[in-house]
Amino acid sequence: MTSGAVRRALASLAALALLAMADAARAEWGLTQLMNELARVQHATARFVERKYLKMLTTPLVVRGKLEYVAPGRVEKRTLEPRPEALIVDGDMVVLESVTGRRTLALQDNPVVWAFVESIRSTLNGDLSTLERFYAVDFDGTPDAWRLRLAPKEEPMKRIVSLILISGERDRIKTIEIKEAQGDRSVMTVLEERR
Amino acid sequence: MSAHRSLAVWVWLLLLAISLIFALRARFTADLSAFLPRAPRAAQQILVDELREGVVSRLVLIGIEGAPPAKLAHVSQALADRLARTTGFGFVNNGAESRTAADARVLVDQRYLLSPGVTPERFTASGLRAALEEDLALLASPMSPMVGPLLARDPTGETLRILDRLHLESGPPKRDGVWFSPDGQRALLIAQTRAPGFDLDAQERAVAAVHAAFAAALSVDKTEGSARLLVTGPGVFALATRAEIKQDVTRISVLAVVMVCALLLVVFRSWRVLLLTLLPVASGVAAGIAAVSGAFGAVHGVTLGFGATLLGEGVDYAIYLFANLGGTNPQARLGRLWRTLRLGVLTSMCGFSVLLLSDFSGLAQLGMLSVTGLLVAFLVTRFVLPSLTPESVRVRPAAALGPPLLEAVQWLPRLRYPLLLGFTLSLVGLAWQSSRVWDDRLESLSPISDADRRLDEQLRRELGAPDVGQLVVIRGESRTQGLELAEQAGGILERLQRDGELSGFESPAQFLPSERTQRARQAALPEADTLGRALTDAARGLPFRLESFGPFLDQVAAAKAGPLLDRGQLDGTGLALKLDALLVQRHGAWFALLPLRGVKDVRRVQAALAELGQADVHTLDLKQEADALYRGYRRQALHFAMAGAGAIALLLLASLRSVRRCADVLLPLAAAVVVTCAAFIAAGARLGMFHLVGLLLVVGVGSNYTLFFERHTFAASDQQRTVLSLTLCNACTAIGFGLLGLAHAPVLHAIGITVAAGAFLSLVFGAVLRNAM
Question: Which of B145, B175, B544 is facing A57, going by the closest CB pair?
Fold first, then answer.
């Protein structure tokens, strides 16, 4: 065996070792790392387009508006079309504003609303333990294209929603898809503006 | 033994046997509503009845605390499941969805009969168009997953309209699916017993079932058993009170017997005399209980407690008899004694018989017991006891006590001017403090401790249980009429609500509309073809899939042709609980109760409801009514007390035939009454109606002592005997009433301390103000 051959062999071994290390590093990026990254975001605003595919309707319903998140507990969803209304979550309270009036709900009194709110808020907040209180959380993908599958755990929510799919890139959410138990479905696309 | 004497003994034995049979078979109660007044107005009577047997009286409020929330929620579920299977409860709720499912089913299934939105216009093409446009907006809203599934069967939103009106969402907050206090420290449940609140045995079984179910719920859960159970509610209070009265009555009776016997034994130093002394009073107590049982059907525990005072007072007659036996010329002495005692018995009976007129059946029982007991004790002393006393009995009252007592009595008149000064000062003081003499709170009748009351108020507030301030009461001849009148009043109240005069109200018609209204709603629903065409027209240009509204068309058709909603269909739901609380049958009529929230000015509500032109519509402010009721009763008690005192004065005047002699007897009593009152006020207490009753009894009982100081009776020859027997009698009476003052029930406590103090002062003041000697 020539010294050149030995060197090549050693070099390829070193390359293999390096590749193995890189693989290990990639494998270590997981749900925990995603949550940590998300948790670092303090403030974000975005536009959204939501398409609702409902059995009752012949065409999908398109809803447009704005989203705002302020860490740790405030989420605002302001609908501009088809009719202005707002859903504002702050701490334990939810405020619903529409042309017909304003209603305030306590999250604790409305387990279904609470579960919905936490699917988005706990994800934005990187709060895995709260998320897991309401959902069985499944994760796959890479840092640049990850996906969370949230399956409701509790009975009242289970009867309404069968699955929530959240996809994203790094610390940004790109889509939220809600599959309802009765077969209806909605897909929200989030276009982030600034943070 | 002469013939008529032995006849008296036989009659006595016969009557005693009958009395004992009645007394031993008597039914005993501890229902405190006997000390709630019978109300003069029908509307007020409803309130009192509700307290006694209404839905409110059947509520059991339950709290579980002392463990982490998840554990508390778990125990709450297990407890609710167990209680729901217990026959004693008609309804159990801990806020869990499974327990409100029956309510939701009724509201959804019966929406076309229940909703005020069901009008002919709502189901025309234009009405439906407006509804569909609203639905589209709802589907676009964030709430769509929750409300969406409802729309296919209820596009006009009747279910939401019903829920909005019923305020059903305003229950306690939930954690882990069940009700919790706002601070999250305590899981909350509410249960309703099948038995009315006054059925204490049933209430006792129900409360025991709660404790047993709680213990079982804890034992199933293997984790640490640190959770604590809190149970409150009217039935629980009544049970605690019954137990307390029982304990008080037993303790007071035993103490009174022991103390009176000990005193008599010390003074008379003879077991035989002691037993003979107790005979008349024992006969009196037996006859009194028998009379109460016969007249009222049942004997109240409080009445038995009052028996202790009868012991203290009834024993007096025998004491006078034995104190005056022996010595020289007993016959002349006894003749004079009987005359004085007869007058004393009459004045006492005069005082107690006023109680018979009372609107409180409890007070009337006390009157009956005392009047019968005193009369029998006197008659037995007068006609039976002398024949039973063998000639050989030598009564030698403790001789050593005589001289010092007489000395004291002879010294006391020196206090005449200080006493008159004190009397005047007390009068001035009472007049000066007149604004804070009376206690006019209805709670002053309640024996419930402050701690228990606070717990009850807290659980009630946390559960949002009915605790209404103002309500409209409407009387109808039938269930139907009650509901129809409630609907008419509801129309007026809705107008006031829109004008901002009140923030809301509840009505039985919201849970069960009258048949007339239900039929009108059925008539407002179109036929199937008409509705189908209207829906097609309405949906033109909107993205709805028409076939998805199949359930809507089917259910409208079913509601139009179906049976009307009746009370039976609500069985086992929280709606039935509400309905039964708001529509009650009493005294052959039906009363609809409409609690009001956030009333700005109750007079404007009254004026608006006057438009109904119904005489049987009343707007009540509960707290105000209750206090007014109580003030009325206090005033009545004052009138009774004055009438009783007047009757006693007239009786004395007729017997003594001299204003002067009459004044000798009454002046010490007046002083005793005034000084007793002044002492209470000075000590910071206020006088309630039971104190007033006590003051009347001071006059009735105290006259027995002052009569003996009256100059024609207080003859020089047997002053020692008189003073000794008076002191002994007074001590026995003070023991009887004084022990009563230890009781927790306000009626016993107030009468006890008032009479004990007043009777003792009567004796002392009688000696001080003695004219003769």
Answer: B544
**Beta carbons of B346 and B771 less than 8 angstroms apart:** no
Contact, A74 vs A83, CB < 8 A? Answer: no
Using one digit for the tens of pLDDT, what is the confidence trace for B668-694?
888 899 999 888 888 877 788 788 888
**Structure tokens, B48:** 């009192």
Taking CA–CA distances from B140, the nearest residue in chain A reads A63
Whether B97 has its CB under 8 Å from any CB of chain A: the answer is: yes
* Matching residue, tokens 């004055």: B642
Please give the C-alpha separations between residue B135 and each of A184, B130, B163, in angstroms, as whole numbers: 16, 9, 17
- pLDDT digit string (tens) for B400-409? 777 777 778 7
A3-194 carries CATH number 2.60.40.10: no
DSSP string for B543-605: -B-GGGGHHHHHHHHHHHHSPPP-GGGGTTSHHHHHHHHHEEEETTEEEEEEEEES-S-HHHH
User: Residue B547's closest chain A neighbor by CA?
Assistant: A56
Could you tell me the pTM of the whole model? 0.65
ipTM of this complex? 0.80
- How far is the CA of B764 from the CAs of B287, B422, B703, B770, B773, in angstroms? 32, 14, 12, 10, 16
CB of B534 closer than 8 Å to CB of B526: yes
B28-29/B299-300 β-pairing: parallel
Buried b (16+ CB within 10 A) or exposed e, B726-756: bbbbbbbbbbbbbbbbebebbbbbbbbbbbb
Every domain of chain A and the residues it spans? 3-194
Q: Which two tokens stand for residue A49?
A: 């387009």
- Provide the shortest C-alpha distance from residue B152 to chain A (in Å): 8
Nearest to B313 by CA among B762, B772, B765, B759: B759
Place of tokens 């969402």: B169
C-alpha span between A60 and A186 (Å, rounded): 9
